[in-house]
Amino acid sequence: MKSTIDNYKEIRNSIPESVNLVIVSKTHPSEAIKELYDVGHRAFGENKSQEILIKQQELPLDIEWHFIGHLQRNKVRQIVPFVHLIHGVDSLRLLKEINKQSIRFEKKTNCLLQFFIADEETKFGFELDEVREILQSDEFKEMQNIQICGVMGMATYTEDVEQIKAEFVNLKNIFDNLKSEFFAGDDKFKEISMGMTNDYGIAVEQGSTIVRIGSAIFGDRDYSK
Ligand SMILES: *Cc1c(COP(=O)(O)O)cnc(C)c1O
Prior knowledge:
By secondary structure, this protein is of the alpha/beta class. It has a single domain (4-217), classed as Alpha-Beta Barrel (TIM Barrel), CATH 3.20.20.10. Helices cover 41% and strands 18% of the residues. The chain is built from ten helices and eight strands. It has helices spanning 4-14, 30-38, 49-58, 76-79, 92-104, 128-136, 138-141, 161-182, 200-205, 215-218, and strands at 20-24, 43-46, 64-67, 85-89, 109-115, 146-153, 191-193, 210-213. Strand 6, helix 8 (161-182) and strand 7 form a beta-alpha-beta unit. The longest helix is centred in the last third of the chain and has 22 residues, at 161-182. The mean pLDDT is 96. Bound molecules: pyridoxal-5'-phosphate.
């Protein structure tokens, strides 16, 4: 059987150096993260606030923590002090709370706007027009402690490569539209977080700058533990 480290190296070598790899460590223990840390990896993604808090306390301080799940507003205060990037911002109310807590901690928090691109009912995210409205609002313009770094999306879980491709093309177009309309002069608006174990190859071809990969590195997750 191949080790986690072998899987990691294989994936790291199979995607362009310019694409960031966030290793999704949800459900896996801190020791598993430490192994990858010890070979030099720093960016890890978690989707539960409870779990990220525990791991953040157990592990080295220079880990870049990515929050990739649906973030509840009452958890923002605990996450903001250390988080590197919040991938799943999907409402104005959440943005406001992140801004408020970031003011408290005197920091600027990096956020990605999550878009609904899949053909599935269960996934969270904005539609483009909603985001346009938010970005034009005075309320948003007054949020000094938020840095919008780009967009995030999840494709439909399907074998249909053409469908996945079309969904990623859609997210890339959304990114390009927002960039030219609202962020043309903002160098920090540059990220397109798309691609997981089953579809990262397609995502990279369509312009992903951050892939979020778990199972291909650690093996299948066991949620019963
Ligand atoms: C779990 C998860 C991933 C990683 O999924 P894999 O299929 O294990 O690579 C990526 N992104 C999000 C938002 C996730 O919740």
